[in-house]
Design a protein that fits this description.
Layout lengths: L7 E2 L2 E2 L4 H13 L2 H8 L7 H13 L1 H17 L4 H15 L5 E9 L4 E9 L4 H14 L29
Antiparallel strand pairs: 1-2, 3-4
């Protein structure tokens, strides 16, 4: 589990039970709320649906949300992960996968007669269209280029509810 054990935030102290804290830590580590719930609480006799429901409810609780956000921020800082780092890595991966940038492959040559091993570095250009496509997709999503559903008529705002009532004197 994570090294972060303190329960304070910049806004005050988050009051969590030991099981809630364990749930938060495991959720960050595993990325799976249901599995974090199983390992934090006595869920042996529970149905899978019940565990899933309770895990989702846990994620909605204010103190749990605050603690998970706190742990995520800590891990981002600890691992020096920034959006800029990820974008730069995706761009480099795209260039490598599209054959724009070379990769160094090291070949090992064994000489049994002389009893020595030599290595030779070879620069290679590769073309991996699937990986290049994924890198481009992730870059495009970050830039907001692809949206699953776009409603151009309302500007992504919900339509107003309109109730029409008509009165008539005719039978």
């Amino acid at each position: 589990m994570s090294d972060v054990k303190e329960k304070s935030t910049s806004k005050g102290v988050v009051k969590l039970t030991p099981k809630q804290e364990k749930f938060c830590q495991l959720y960050i580590e595993l990325g799976n709320a249901s599995e974090a719930y199983r390992q934090s609480y006595n869920a042996e006799n529970m149905k899978t649906e019940t565990i899933n429901t309770r895990a989702k409810e846990m994620l909605k609780k204010g103190p749990i949300k605050v603690r998970i956000n706190e742990l995520q921020e800590y891990h981002l800082k600890r691992h020096s992960v920034t959006v800029d780092n990820i974008i730069a890595d995706l761009q480099e991966l795209r260039d490598i996968c599209m054959g724009r940038k070379s990769v160094v492959m090291t070949d090992t040559i064994k000489n049994a007669q002389e009893g020595k091993i030599d290595t030779v570095n070879n620069q290679m250009f590769v073309f991996e269209p699937t990986s290049a496509n994924k890198a481009l997709e992730l870059l495009g999503k970050h830039l907001g280029m692809f949206k699953d559903k776009l409603d151009v008529t309302t500007g992504d705002k919900p339509l107003p509810t309109v109730i029409n009532v008509t009165f008539s004197d005719e039978p």
